[in-house]
């Protein structure tokens, strides 16, 4: 466990020490969550989920042998069926 001293600057800004940024792979533009537990403040690094979800989705498509074109055709069919269920076949 590391401990760092930081100073709050104008508009509540603080600088995360370089050693901590490097160790936690924090880069400019990353989002952190500030958690307040009584008198304790904890910063948590938030990892964006989109890249992870995209990779997982692509892996599942590969395993199932499904292409993006297949998914788009299935989406169009599902939209049509959903519309028929909701508004009737003649709408």
Characterization of the model:
- With 91 residues, this protein is α+β, with helices and mostly antiparallel strands.
- It has two domains: 10-46, Pemi-like Protein 1, Chain: D; 49-87.
- 47% of the residues lie in helices and 15% in strands.
- The protein has three helices and two strands.
- It has helices at 18-24, 49-64, 68-87, and strands at 31-37, 40-46.
- The protein has a two-stranded antiparallel sheet with strand order 1-2.
- A hairpin with a 2-residue loop joins strand 1 (31-37) and strand 2 (40-46).
- It starts with 17 loop residues before the first helix and ends with a helix.
- The mean pLDDT is 89.
């Amino acid at each position: 466990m590391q401990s760092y001293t930081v100073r709050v600057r104008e508009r509540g800004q603080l600088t995360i020490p370089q050693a901590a940024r490097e160790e936690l792979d924090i880069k400019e533009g990353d989002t952190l969550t500030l958690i307040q537990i009584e008198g304790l403040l904890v910063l948590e690094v938030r990892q964006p989920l989109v890249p992870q979800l995209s990779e997982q989705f692509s892996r599942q498509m590969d395993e199932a042998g499904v292409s993006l074109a297949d998914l788009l055709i299935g989406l169009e069919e599902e939209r049509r069926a959903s519309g028929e269920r909701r508004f009737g076949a003649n709408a």
